[in-house]
Specification:
The protein has one domain. The N and C termini lie far apart (73 Å). The protein is built from 5 helices and 12 strands. The chain is of the alpha+beta class and 332 residues long. The strands form 4 sheets. It has a 6-stranded antiparallel beta sheet. The protein has a two-stranded antiparallel sheet with strand order 1-2. Helix content is 22%, strand content 14%.
Length: 332
Amino acid sequence: MKKTRGFTLVELLVVIAIIALLIGLLLPALAKARQSARSTKDSSQINQTHKGMLIYANSDKKNRLPIPGMKYPVWYQNGATVYKGRYGSERQEINSSKNLYSLCIAEGYFKPNILVGTTEVNDAVEVDEDYDFSSIRPAENKYWDTGFSANIDERAEGSCDDEVTDEWQGNTCPDTCNTSYAHMAIHGKTSPPANKANLRRSQNWVNYAGSEHVVMGTRGTRGGDESSETHYAKSPTLQLHGPQDRWNGYFCFGDNHMEYEESFYGTNYMCIGSGGNLPDNVFWRDFGPSDQGQTSQCATGDIPAAWEGDSWIGITRTVNDFGSSHAWDKRD
């Protein structure tokens, strides 16, 4: 009779070692593939968000992407009589990110989940699972759910009253953020001089914009800072895409094409400053006038002021007489 020979203990251990080695080689590749897939999906969500806004613009008489202050304007008034439905002036102070995104959700151009990135690392960011469509009552001047939040810096913690609310902002100090994405500052001109036009919005926040200006994208570091240990190296945005020691992200341009960038200068646009033609940092208002305390490269002489010209994206928290106030990730 022939003997049936099985594995010896040594042979079994060799097989186990080979399998362990293969797993060790494959796991990093699989992890990288998963991260790449999440990153690509994140890019797709930014692109779809902008597409939804482009569709919105098709029904606007001037082809403008959503602007909350025009959806809920200051109604025309004669004495004590208010003519609702009769357009007055734009309500500039409500052109914040929370109202912009909430308006688009309310009108059905996209769902809340598309606004939270698949690579998100900030614990404050979460999908608005309880978006209140029942709160939308146009007859009462309620056009979106004011409970939607874009408080990326978690400003509520010890810095303001959680109970503060108003008719269009809802809770002004929420402790969550329901979006991952930055968009072009869409405030209009709210302060003099009167000869300054809102070129940024009128030329690029429309459905016929070109391929030069960034209108949406991955959010960046505070003020487009790329050198400070505090504002750059410790920013959670470095962990969203690519190597974690440097910022990488996606930009969506006015014509809806996407580009993957490794710097904040993701545009062919050049401003004219004291040093000649200068690249545009999309996370900073390069046209910020010096009298507003801004360190600007392109705000000398007759160069347009902060509400004009350059690409400037972020998550807008408030709008004031000067323009938008962007919020940035809270750092550890």
